[in-house]
Amino acid sequence: MAVYTDITEGDLGAFLRNYSIGELLSYKGIAEGTENSNFLLHTSTGPFILTLYEKRVEEADLPFFLGLMDHLAARGISCPLPVHRHDGGTIGTLAGRPAAIITFLEGMWPRRPTVVHCREVGKVLAAMHLAGADFAMTRKNALAVEGWQELWAASRERADEVAAGLTQEVDADFALLEKEWPDHLPKGIIHADLFPDNVFFLGSELSGLIDFYFACNDLLAYDLATCLNAWCFEKDMSFNITKGAALLSGYQSVRVLSDAEKAALPVLARGSALRFMLTRLYDWLHGPDGDLVVKRDPAEYIRKLRFHRSISSVQEYGLS
Ligand SMILES: Nc1ncnc2c1ncn2[C@@H]1O[C@H](COP(=O)(O)OP(=O)(O)O)[C@@H](O)[C@H]1O
Ligand SMILES: N[C@@H](CCOP(=O)(O)O)C(=O)O
Fold it and tell me: Where are the transmembrane segments (predicted)?
């Protein structure tokens, strides 16, 4: 993330009086991340994460996100737990933003994902899909095709400033995706942003998942396509088929893909690459700047989109 909203010690102290997490020893803003403002708190009972929810998070969705973490953790998926306040709730207000405290998850996200990481992520993604099956709440994906169109409408005019020819390329992507988006595939709870910085490892062991603030109900295979994009490209933007194979076989060791899901992977991966290119492009053109704000480069996803446009068979993703 970043820090978009700063807090004062006085406001934080008053906010913490609603919790039984001990005495505040220190706090600092976390520069990592993109969407919300996060702070690392140290109290006399240990470390915690304080999140102030920003622009893309609707307050009305917070019970879904926080309830999902509780639900998944109860089914064996390691993730942070929302800390309850004295009044039983998990959501308060700090510096004018909705805010919550979650437990601290040990581990580090992999800066250079390996084949082993990819296999582990495939397995945990499938396990999360199965564990989410009986979650009682639902949330529509705000960043499905309609949401992409809004981002594009707000950025299209200046897209060629970012990459020559982008306007024409993306218009063609929309024409294809609106026609071929597969609505008939298995749906359920998806993470929708399972990038390396949202998966923690202790050594080669996966220690847990964070950042459920895009989670929603959508196509399960779309979540897998997002992981292909986020985990299996090298720094030079070449697709690493060995990593793709590890991710897909890890996933299928827990949940087998149907033939229709396999066949849809190219269009899903293209749609997912478009989605991340568009949020990055929008933030690049319209997002706030600041010392603790790191903007992500849309160019990476422009190149991934070009790769997916060139795919002629799903075997090119490493599917055996
Ligand atoms: N529960 C947690 N335990 C440990 N570190 C966390 C936890 N949640 C967030 N962080 C830290 O905060 C950073 C940003 O969190 P993230 O949820 O990805 O933010 P955003 O939603 O703004 O992208 C992470 O990269 C990690 O360093
Ligand atoms: N993963 C997205 C940005 C969302 O940021 P995160 O810190 O919540 O993962 C991207 O890479 O564009």
Answer: none
Question: pTM of the entire structure?
Answer: 0.95
CATH topology of domain 9-103: Phosphorylase Kinase; domain 1 (3.30.200)
| CATH superfamily of the 115-317 domain | Aminoglycoside phosphotransferase (APH), C-terminal lobe (3.90.1200.10)
* Nearest CA, atom 4, ligand 2: 34
Residues of the chain with CATH 3.90.1200.10: 115-317
Using the atom order of ligand 1, give the atom closest to the CA of residue 2.
Answer: 22
Which of 90, 86, 273 has the alpha carbon at shortest distance from 169? 273
**Ligand 2 contacts CB of residue 173 (under 6 A):** no
Handedness of CA 10, 46, 209, 240 (dihedral sign): positive
Query: What is the b/e burial string over 47-73, where b = at least 16 CB atoms within 10 angstroms of the residue's CB?
Result: ebbbbbbbebbeeebbebbbbbbebbb
